[in-house]
Description:
The first copy, chain A, is mainly beta and 241 residues long. Chain A has helices spanning 137-140, 164-177, 181-189; strands at residues 7-11, 30-35, 53-59, 71-72, 83-84, 97-110, 113-119, 128-134, 158-162, 206-211, 214-221, 233-240.
Amino acid sequence: MEIEPIGVISSCYKEKFGIPRQPALVPLGKASLIMAEGYQQQEMLDGLAEFSHIWLIFGFHATLEQGWKASVRPPRLGGNKRVGVFASRSMYRPNGLGLSVCKLDSISTRGDKVALQLSGVDMLDATPVYDIKPYLPYADCLPGAVGGYADKKPAIQYEVIFSALAKQQCLEKQQELGVDVMALIQQILQQDPRPAFHAGRYQKREYGMRLYDMNVRWCYLLSGEEKIRENKELVKVISLC
Amino acid sequence: MEIEPIGVISSCYKEKFGIPRQPALVPLGKASLIMAEGYQQQEMLDGLAEFSHIWLIFGFHATLEQGWKASVRPPRLGGNKRVGVFASRSMYRPNGLGLSVCKLDSISTRGDKVALQLSGVDMLDATPVYDIKPYLPYADCLPGAVGGYADKKPAIQYEVIFSALAKQQCLEKQQELGVDVMALIQQILQQDPRPAFHAGRYQKREYGMRLYDMNVRWCYLLSGEEKIRENKELVKVISLC
């Protein structure tokens, strides 16, 4: 079957590294879904604004060429135990389709352009979207469901601190973007975006990710370097270049 | 983008009429997902059995040719108010993709054939499936979400009764299929599968639907014909041919 994008994502996430593993983990992650030509009629979205959340079926466009694997090592299992691709939300899957629920903040029309403003997203910039469906709590929310190896929300293991420079830069960016940049970076880094095998190693290394037009730089602190609070490991944001 | 089925549904629902509007409404509705050639490796499903529920992304194959409509009249709004196609779960949608959460009862292997046994389905027989994803309660279940015009589970408005003949036939079928046929029919008919504009009209008409290898026949009773209980309308199952 041939499917074509009904819209494209303009996301705060400009590269794969740093994107939360599930959309709910970083509520401040924002994106717009810009409806494609042929899907710009306001009529197609009538009534959608009454829903707080929507499903998006999208394509894992950045990794599609790499094909799929029969089994994957989900980060939730420490990256060293395999499960079948269909028991995971991995992007390396047959047909390369992703599914995410996002918060629908608003729908805007500017000239011919119709766009949906979303938050709590986990989609890369330029992601093609194939469908929008309203989230129906009575049908889609199953509080009694059992979620195998990923039953609970991952524990927050990191405490995020900012250098004086990073703090200053966050405040400046907040003015420019109208987004609480410091809280956003905090939400992203407390999930630890690194591959599981990096944890507890590579502390000397400086990591970076592209977020909006920033290059966020951070490192992991060894205990002793700064006071470790609440039994959490420390992540220090160095700067936003 | 070109997508291909990873499996096909063998469902108790043999025709569109009678299929519940959301999968959760008829928990007894059963189907198997038979994995397609090339997707028969048990490895691809490793770990999935630990999840109670799964998402299926599938194709609305029976209505695909009819194309899509910019707006639809959802049954929840009595069939006389329009909403945008993206504010609905209508099958007449761009790209013709459906999304359902089902209960995963078991995974079986017989020779080369790998199949998933599902319940609480709303898929037509022979539906092509493009993806399986585990249901992650912490990410997918949003109890606080607001569901617009379809916020609550639809109220059950009908009381289902069986003729002596239908009762007898249900018991015989139950022996053969190992399914509580009477309860299944009850769950289907108490949702009223008729188009909204039929309600309160056409009481003299006999309706039918194909379920497994049965032809279920029923009609609607006018008050006075039989004692109406609990302020519900009465549906009488006449026979299973």
